[in-house]
Amino acid sequence: MLTLRTDHLTKLEKSTHSTLMKNVIQNNTIAIVEAASLCQVSPSKISKLVRKLGFDNFKQYKRYFSGQETPEIISGKSTETARLIQFLENYNPSLTKDFLSVFTKFDKVILFGLGPSYITAEYFAYKLTTVTDKNVFVTHHEDYAERLADDNTLLVVFSVTGTFTSFEPLFENIKHKDSQIMLVLEENINTRDSKADYIITLSPPDQGSELLAFEKTRTVFFIFIEEIIAELRKQRNP
Q: If residue 186 lies in a helix (H) or strand (E), which one and from where to where?
C-alpha cells in the first residue's frame, strides 16, 4: 500500500525528484551515492526525499519508477473472498488518514469514475452527504468536471487499473483551473508520468490479468470508502 504525495515538496525537492526519477528510469540499479551525486545533493537528502514522497526507502523508489514494483500475490489461484480477506488483514489505517488530510483542505470535491468506478463514486458522494457539509459532485463527464473546477477544488478519480483510459487530458485541463488532483488506484501500477498531486494505491492481491478493467470488482474501493466515512463520522460525533 502506498500514498504518493508531491504537493508538500519544496521547489528544490521537486527538481531533485524530477532528476532522480529520470536517472532511475535510465538505470534501475543506480546506487544512492551515485544518484545523490547526479542530483547534486547528499545521500541523506535522497533518503529524506523518498520517505517524504511516501516510500519506505530508495530501493522501493527505484522499483516503483522503473516499473518493477508489483503488488503482493496470493500463492495459487485465489477466490475473491480470499483476496479480500488478505486485503483486510493487511489494511493500513494510514491510507484513511492520508485521504482525509487532503480532503479536509478543500470546500469543493469532484468525484470522478468511469464504468463501475462511476457507481463507486456515486455511492461515495451519497455517503459523504451524511457526514460532511462540503460541496460534493460526482460525474463521469470530463467537460462537466472541468466546468466545476476552481482553485478550491479537489478532483478525486477512482480507477482499478488506471489503464481503461488516459486521465491525463482531464488532469491537464483541471490543472489550468488551479485545482488539485487525487488518483485512487486499486492495483499497483507505474504512475511516474501522472500529473496527479496525490496518488493512493490500495494494493490488494491482483484480480488477475484475464479480467478486463470493467469486469473487475470494486469491493476494495467500497471498503476504503467505509473506512473514510467511519472516521468522518467519528470526527463529527466525538
A: none
Distance CA 179, CA 105 (A): 12
Distance of alpha carbon 159 from the chain centroid:
9
Across the chain, which distance is largest between two alpha carbons, in Å? Answer: 52
pTM: 0.69
CA 191 and chain centroid, separation: 9
Residue with cell 484480480: 207
Residue with cell 463529527: 236
For the chain, list the domains and their CATH numbers.
2-65 (1.10.10.10), 80-236 (3.40.50.10490)
Q: Are 35 and 166 in contact (CB under 8 A)?
A: no
Rounded to 5, what percent of the chain is helix, strand, coil? 45, 15, 40
**Tell me, what amino acid is at 31?**
A
> Per-residue pLDDT tens for 56-96?
788 888 888 877 654 444 344 447 787 888 888 888 888 99
Give the Cα-Cα-Cα angle 117, 227, 2 (nearest 5 degrees): 70
Alpha helices in 131-218, H assignment, sequence order = 142-148, 168-175
Half-sphere exposure of 163 (CA within 13 A, CB side): 11
112-151 pLDDT, tens digit each: 999 899 999 999 999 999 999 999 999 999 999 999 999 9
